[in-house]
Amino acid sequence: MIREVIIGFVLALLVFLGLDGVDIWPIVLLLGLGGAIYASGIFNRLGTRTVRKVQVSQVTTSFQDIGGQNMAKNELKEALEFILKPDVISRLGIRPLKGILLTGVPGTGKTLLAKAAAHYTESVFLSASGSEFVEMYAGVGAQRVRQLFQEARNMARKESKSSAIIFIDEIEVMAGRRGSNQSHLEYDQTLNQLLVEMDGMPVHDDDVRILVMAATNRVDLLDQALMRPGRFDRLVSVDLPDREGRLSILKLHTRNKPLDVDADLEAIARETFGFSGAHLESVCNEAAILAMREESETIGTKHLRQAVDKVMLGERMDRTLRVDDIKRVSIHESGHALIGELVAPGSVSSVTIAPRGMALGFVRHAPDDDRLLQTVSELKADIQVLLGGSTAERMILGERSTGAANDFEKAWDIARQMVFSGISSLGVIKEEALSQDLLYQTLRDIITEQQDIVDALIMEHREKLLRLADTLLEHETLSGDQVRSLVAS
Predict the structure, then answer these.
(1) What DSSP line would sit under 223-263, residue for residue?
(2) Over the range 461-486, which residues count as b (16 or more CB within 10 Å of their CB) and which as e?
(3) What is d(CA 96, CA 204) in angstroms, rounded to the nearest whole number?
(4) What is the pLDDT of residues 214-226, one digit of tens each?
(5) Which helix (H) or strand (E) is 58 found in, with range?
(6) pLDDT of amino acid 402
(7) Is 341 exposed, middle or buried (0-12, 13-18, 19+ CB in 10 A)?
(8) pTM for the whole thing?
(9) Are residues 60 and 209 in the same domain?
(10) What are residue 167's phi and psi, to 5 degrees?
(11) Which of 21, 54, 268, 442 has a CA that sits 20 to 30 A from residue 205's CA?
């Protein structure tokens, strides 16, 4: 407000002096020069904006607080030895690591691992996002990189620490292949400055040892100069947790929650194949919310299973379906569940016709073990399960519906995977040498073969399918044990 009043007063004064015959141009030039200096000060403050930082006294995350990443934690601890044992490293003539790159899909705990590394080594911890470095002003990114390294040293000295960890999240934003942003060289300048800073880091003589840690889920986008030894020396893969890892994550996120004595975390861990740590944390949180809504004192297996469904598919829809649509959905999902139990007994965890998100119903499968490799028979069984819903519709109701579109797409993808894995009738092939006509015909043959098997199974077990669909219409949701009892009877 005061600034606007001053500007208005100055303009009025200039107008008055001009009308009075005074030469105001020298004054205008002086005011313009002062405004330019003031504006450059603003831009300078924009360029020198400090990055977000967290001191070690505020970093309370330890490796014990991270579940499901034992391999990544062990590899990271080994790489951090140069900070903990500098004398031994120097005596053996080992060149300390300058950078560690954490790679993996989102939600697997890369940022938590970086914080735990700072806690483990009692280092000063500074964090920044790759997007914080690059703006429209030339030179800002490079200047911020220089400031980041200098601030790490200053903070360590201020805190009387001998080491500092700089963590850059989403580093692919500022460290993509040079030349890929031809209209904006600021990206390349920022990356060049990061390379210079990492090259210029003293390894033995400096009073502050700096380790650069970065995280990305697109390692393929990074410039190769950043990946060479002497910069990012270690590549630590932070993968999705296995069943034991998921169980440990669930235990971590439920330790401050009132679990029911019968809550089966092992069953939830088995049913959440493909979930990241972030997904599992959300499951535990949603389960607590569901228990609160029901005014329950404890969180049970029922709440956890409902939370898994919500995290996978979204909130339950309020929309009421037509009676004919509900019947069709029940037959469709019963077809999936029936074929699932016939080709892989014990694999169905639950089946429901309660609409969630974009799904009007779904069957949740829970394999006994995480499958990292699949055989031909297992892939064919997956295709058969996907075809079970549409086949049940066709054989019971006389025609298919658009509800099977996603099933067909997944079945086609599995068949394609079989072809390019060399386990189809074509044998080992090279994708570039395969014509589109031959590929299409081979995929169609695979799908047709599995469709014939599903037709025979549905026809043979038609009565079980109808009984399963009627029970599903009555109860809306059935557990895996209920499905198995109906299929076995």
Answers:
(1) -HHHHSTTTS-EEEE-PPP-HHHHHHHHHHHHTTS-B-TT-
(2) beebbebbbebbbeeeebbbebbbeb
(3) 8
(4) 999 888 888 888 8
(5) none
(6) 87
(7) buried
(8) 0.74
(9) yes
(10) -115, 125
(11) 54
Q: 474: which residues sit within 8 A by CB, 6+ positions away?
A: none
Residue 304: domain span: 243-313
Is residue 192 located within the same domain as residue 299?
Answer: no
Residues 381 and 306 in one domain: no
Task: Please report whether residue 229 resides in a domain.
Answer: yes
Indicate which CATH number applies to the domain containing 271. 1.10.8.60
Place of tokens 């049970």: 300
Q: Could you tell me the CATH number of the domain that includes residue 107?
A: 3.40.50.300
Inter-CA distances, 401 with 116, 154, 285, 380, 389, Å:
51, 66, 36, 23, 10
- Whether residue 3 is contained in a domain is answered as no
Tokens 């001998």 sit on residue: 162
361 Cβ neighbours under 8 A, 6+ residues apart: 329, 330, 332, 333, 351, 352, 353, 354, 355
Find the catalytic residue in 186, 333, 341, 393. 333
Please confirm, yes or no, whether 333 is among the known catalytic residues: yes
CA–CA gap between residue 331 and residue 400 (Å, rounded): 11
Let me know if residue 381 belongs to a domain: yes
**R_g over Cα of the chain:** 31
Handedness of CA 397, 398, 401, 404 (dihedral sign): positive
Residues 291 and 394 in one domain: no
Q: How far is CA 480 from CA 236, 301, 348, in A?
A: 38, 14, 5
Residue 11 and residue 37: Cα distance in Å, rounded? Answer: 19
Residues 348 and 418 in one domain: yes
Asked if residue 327 is part of any domain, the answer here is: yes
User: Average pLDDT of each block of 10 consecutive residues along the chain (489 residues)?
Assistant: 63 67 70 64 45 52 85 86 80 82 89 89 84 59 83 87 88 76 63 80 67 88 83 87 90 91 88 88 93 91 88 76 87 93 88 82 77 86 94 92 90 94 88 89 95 95 93 88 86
Closest CA to 211 of 24, 59, 70, 86: 86
Is residue 302 domain-shared with residue 427, that is, in the same domain? no
Q: What is the pLDDT of residues 405-416, one digit of tens each?
A: 899 999 999 999
**Total structural domains in the chain?**
3
